[in-house]
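Suppose a colleague, Dr. K., hands you the sequence of a protein chain of 167 amino acids and asks what its three-dimensional shape might be. Before reaching for any lab equipment, you can write down a predicted structure in token form. Begin with the sequence itself:
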Amino acid sequence: MVAWLFQLLRHDLALVVRGLPYEDGRYAHGPLEAYPSPDHVGYAVWRDHPNTSRPAPIAFALCEAVTVARWSMAALWVSPVVRGEGVGTRLALDVLARHGDEWEVAFQHDNVSAGRFWRRIGDLAFPSGWDESRRPVTRRVDVPADHVIVGTRPPSASAPGAPARAG
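The predicted structure, expressed as tokens, is then:
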């Protein structure tokens, strides 16, 4: 299921990362090969589909352990139909609360809406503050450096109400 939704994420990012589908018609999907594993975890948000009344995925997040102490949000996607309803915010905060206290989230320089989103999440998830820096994109000298937000969750912070289901 996530493999299909990951294609929608890559499609959404195509203009930002100047990406094209490969010869098999799919966008890059290599990052998914590491999932699931103890240090590569995915979550999905489900809602009853309006046509079938059966649960259907409306969002997903992928995270990975960078070190023993630090996790990274590798991907987060929300269906366009439910964007603006708070699904992404609840999912991001839920995932950040589930894995360690130290986090990093990278986003593309040209992805302005992602920048607004992740800075707002940083304010919510890391109330004592967070740092933002730039990091060159591996093997891509033709694109601007990514922005990387790094923050530490308060030790007493626990997962908010769970909108996500592990997948």
